[in-house]
Amino acid sequence: MSKFEKYLAVWVALCMGLGLLLSKFIPGIGETIDSWQIRGISIPIGICLFLMMYPALLNFQVSELKKLKDAPKPILLTLFSNWIVAPIVAAVLAHIFLQGQEQLMVAIILLGSSPCTAMVLVWGKLADGNQEQNVVNTSLNTLTIMVLYVPIVTLLTGIQNIPIDRWALVISALVFIGLPLIIGIISKRWIIQTRGENWFHQTYRPMVGKVAIGALLMTLIILFSLNGKVLLNNFDLLGLVSVPLLLGFLIVVSFNLIITRIFGLAYKEAVITVLIGSSSHFEIAIAAAVSMYGVGSIAALGTTMGLFWEVPIMLGLVELAKFLNRRNFWKPDRKATALS
């Protein structure tokens, strides 16, 4: 992890602030950016989101999924947290704290129903976790998002009688996960065949990873410049949406810490399970919010707050896991499993 990436939380905050300043001191910038669209899809946001998603989906490896049968326990615990615990916690907290703010409620549900497939590779490395398990889990998450994301979001919003554009949700999943996944698989094979596997892993992936971070920061500037006027007049909304976000992290992280201890996982497997089970795929959440409500919407900004809080929380969780390991919270690492 480079020095720049270590301070990602700082750059995120600065870009949000820059977006707000642009909206205040450059009249009409939001309207100008919002006019660059094709059939309701923002061109600048679409490009940025694709550049954010593509590097993450290069991690997808079908061959790794064959290892599920060798050590299924940590993978199954992570799937349970990702697709049962986190979405339900998000929906309940949204209902409790955000009544009357339907777009913010949807933003929380979108974040809670989207398991991470990218940044956890960084968090897992920092925590000295089982990176082979990490690759298996993130590859599986890529597949399950394609199948489960739309139904779960539809179910949770439907229970609370929140109307959403389901077709826009489907399209966002296909365009911002399906398309980058297909392009990622094709480009990965072609690059490995022409330049070799070592060049792909040592040069190409780090390069596009830096592009993804740049696209992420640019997305924040665009979103906050578009919604600057709304936010400056309703700054309390950021604090309002932060309450269920932070409380949700606390509940889900606590659940994952306890469940990995109860099931007797060793540290290297436990820490990956906790990290993946507690993080969200904010890229697809942002994409879905933009597709359903527009670039300059409260829902889009609500999902970006998930990113704002997730980066420092995950870095803190890495340090907490290391501390708990020193205190023998989990079993000593085993020498023998197929995923270790």
Structural features, described:
By secondary structure, the protein is mainly α. The protein has one domain: Na+/H+ antiporter like fold (Up-down Bundle), CATH 1.20.1530.20. It contains 15 helices and 2 strands. A hairpin with a 2-residue loop joins β1 and β2 (41-42). α12 packs parallel to α15. The longest helix is centred in the middle third of the chain and has 30 residues, at 166-195. The model is unreliable at 336-340 (pLDDT under 50).
Q: What's the gyration radius in Å?
A: 19 Å
Query: What is the number of helices?
Result: 15
Strand content: under 5%
Indicate the low-confidence ranges by residue numbers. 336-340
Please outline what is shown here:
The chain has helices at 3-6, 8-25, 29-35, 43-57, 72-97, 102-112, 119-126, 131-159, 166-195, 197-226, 228-233, 236-262, 267-278, 282-293, 298-326; strands at 37-38, 41-42. By secondary structure, it is an all-alpha fold. Helix 5 (72-97) runs parallel beside helix 8 (131-159) and helix 6 (102-112) packs parallel to helix 12.
Please describe the topology of this protein:
Blueprint: H1 3-6, H2 8-25, H3 29-35, E1 37-38, E2 41-42, H4 43-57, H5 72-97, H6 102-112, H7 119-126, H8 131-159, H9 166-195, H10 197-226, H11 228-233, H12 236-262, H13 267-278, H14 282-293, H15 298-326
Antiparallel strand pairs: 1-2
